[in-house]
Amino acid sequence: MISVYCLIAFACCNIVTQGLLYPIETETRQIRSLDGIWQFRLDENGVGESEQWFSMPQLPEPTIPMPVPSAFNDVTQNITVHRHIGWVWYAKNFYLHNTAPRWVLRFQAASYESRVWINGQSAVNHSGGHLPFETDLTPFITSGGNVSVVRVVVAVNNTLTTTSLPPGELVIHNPTYRELVTQFDIYNYAGIDHSVILYSTSKSYVQDIVIDTQSIDFDSQHIATSATLNYSITIGGTESNVLRVLVQLIDANGVIVANNSDSQSRLVVEKPHLWEPCGMNHTHPCTEESYLYTLQVTLYNEGAFNEPVDVYRIPYIGIRTIRLTDSQFLINERPFYFHGVNAHEDSDIRGTGFDDVILAKHFNLYGWIHGNTFRTSHYPYAEEFYQLADRFGIVVIGQTAAIGMNREEYFSDRMLAHHKQVIVEMFTRDRNHPSVVMWCLANEPQSNLPVSRPYFSALVNFTRPIAAGRPLILVTNQYANNDLCMEFFDIIGINRYVAWYSDYGRLDQITSTISQDIASWRSTYPTKPILVSEYGVDTIPGLHNDPPLMFTEEYQTEFYAAYHLAFDNVSSLLHPDTGFFIGELPWTMFDFATEQSTIRVGGINHKGLFTRQRQPKAAAFLLKHRYEQFEYVTTTIKREA
């Protein structure tokens, strides 16, 4: 019998955040969406708060209707709205039927600085985009009666600073020319770009849940015979100390397979069905679903189980382990090879706005291309994305919004404190998803600066105790001979653009240059697996030339093929005894919006395998064929000394 262990830490830290359980409807909870058209206006002079717009029955004119969720930038024909930097204001009135003792107003995300008023009173402030925040409505609504009138006013500021993630600096050239200087290549979309939700709870309620696989036992045929899951339940509210708790793990057929009555303990599952990543020879295709359990937590008073105080369910519990060797990444003690395509939350008109149609199309195309991995580049994604990744077995590398950290002043103590806060919020939201197997703390920081070394040393030391057994990766565009921070991390992620940002047009130099680069990293860090986390070229759909020239579809196809030759020479999938290269993630899945410049036609980065409208370029078929062939490669575990 083989025992595999994956530890979970219930560690404490100085930063505290509320439980960020995804809002669901149950026997004891109600859900209401506030998505739709909100009143909206720019605050070009930054006077809204001093003039107390939050207390007015209507925002002062001029206002326009604005959809939520959506970035505000591309909804109108007005260039002033498109490039606005500073505060914008949203407002919405609604009736709240007093059918529950506690109502919570939750913003799934707003970018980047948010201030919320309810009925003219300050309710909650939040710094940072991409992650949820919420506030209890109860203190702000009228007690008594069946219905309360609620007015929500939200101010959102997209100005980036030297202590925000991502960082930036506002330059005022003259009264009509304000410029946000950043060190990243995406458009700074902003607004209430994810959903706004009302949900109810009882006075006492399930506030937080932590669950992870501690161990899986296998027989000699590598069939799972039992699994142990650690869990912890946090109860919030006024009567939490007198309530009983029942924790039940339910299989896909609705059968309870394990239960416990302690708020912190473990569940043992006999003959478990494992959550498996897709796209490997020993697993399922990425168009089919992985196995998920449901965790049900019930709070009740002694002797009154049939009248529960609160019921909460997580429907995406996956039983799986993670283990890292010096040359392989193991999921359920079998080698896993990362192959997928990065992307941005970006689409026409909506910008970064969440959209179920765009989400469904994304996963449809992921199944088509046989991709099994996604890095949330370059920020945490909407949680609905992780839920579908759980469902289909798509592996996720969860990344913070730490991009563009290219100046010494960005590595300050204040930035470090904010970076830690973002990590805690992201971990708290995403730690229960089986699809999340790795945490990426930053993308392309200037990790050759002396100031970066103590910064990332402190950040990793803070992060590791709360990482829930997941490895940490730094994605870098530096090199083995000048990087100062990679030693703190578990996996090396490198972004490379040979024959694009250097050696223009020289496709013939790619394979040897990348092979030497990978070898240099391996020589410097012989116990750390390596993956290429970005590589790609801008490609204009329909532009052709033979021989291949830059920007043509032929060039993009040959570019990828040359990189693949370098990858395959050291692949842990193709050479399990000698390989140490564990994955490849092209940049990028879809063309996306960025700032206007002489190298960005139409303000679009054209590195996508698909257009912004989700239509394939020629190289998409090359990747589709390559990834499909990976599914026929028998996986082998390298013998450990």
Give an overview in words.
The protein is α+β, with helices and mostly antiparallel strands. It has eight helices and 33 strands. Helix 4 runs parallel beside helix 5, helix 6 packs parallel to helix 7 and helix 7 packs parallel to helix 8. It is globular. The chain starts with a strand and ends in an 11-residue tail after the last helix. 47% of the residues are buried.
Helix-strand layout with pairing:
Layout: E1 2-5, E2 31-33, E3 36-43, E4 64-68, H1 79-82, E5 87-97, E6 102-107, E7 113-118, E8 121-127, E9 133-136, E10 147-157, E11 169-174, E12 177-181, E13 196-201, E14 204-218, E15 224-237, E16 244-250, E17 256-260, E18 264-270, E19 293-300, E20 310-317, E21 322-324, E22 329-331, E23 334-336, E24 338-339, H2 356-369, E25 373-375, H3 383-392, E26 395-399, H4 413-430, E27 436-443, H5 452-463, E28 472-476, E29 491-495, H6 510-524, E30 530-534, H7 553-569, E31 581-584, E32 592-593, E33 604-605, H8 618-630
Parallel strand pairs: 24-31, 25-26, 26-27, 27-28, 28-29, 29-30, 30-31
Antiparallel strand pairs: 1-14, 2-13, 3-4, 3-5, 5-10, 6-9, 6-13, 7-8, 7-10, 11-12, 14-15, 15-18, 16-17, 16-19, 19-20, 21-22, 22-23, 32-33
